[in-house]
Amino acid sequence: MNQRIVEMFVIQAAEQAEQTGRFLSNEERLRYSGRACTFCGALLTPPRSWGERYCDRCPPHEAKLVRIEFHYCQGWNCDTYDAGSGSPLSVRLRFTDSQRLYLLAKRGRALVGRRAKETFYHGVGKGSGTVSLTLTDVQYRALLCACSKCEAKNTTN
Fold first, then answer.
1. Which candidate among 2, 37, 68, 116 keeps its CA 20 to 30 Å from the CA of 157?
2. Coil, strand, or helix at residue 141?
3. Does 47 lie in the same domain as 70?
4. Total domain count for the chain?
5. Roughly what angle, to the nearest 10 degrees, separates helices 98-107 and 114-126?
6. How confident is the model at residue 72 (pLDDT cuts 50, 70, 90)?
7. Shared domain check, 69 and 128
8. Res 111: pLDDT
């Protein structure tokens, strides 16, 4: 029965790819088939159910959504907002090169699909853009704490 479901999914994906001209990446295939965690990408142990799933380390209720607007002005300036309410967070980031911005987006699971990557690279190329991060509770607290330490250093100097 499971083999039949997999075959149906492959046929549907092939038909959709022919219509849209877009094929699934290996990472997307693993996520949709239930073999990889939707959040962190870690491989899941059997028994697996069909569809997107989370591993034990990444429960979905701990995910924090953060929107970052970035623009280039003598470095990459980033303003952070709560993705749900749109209210600004007290976090302002500044990077000297786009590689750091890329690492932030990658660690925040913002570059999951091809379309997200293309949008990110287009924003970097044009000098401004927006990226939505999906952070764990630990990552979210680290983001807030790291920036408060930076602000404390800036006020003492």
1. 68
2. helix
3. no
4. 2
5. 150
6. very high
7. yes
8. 82
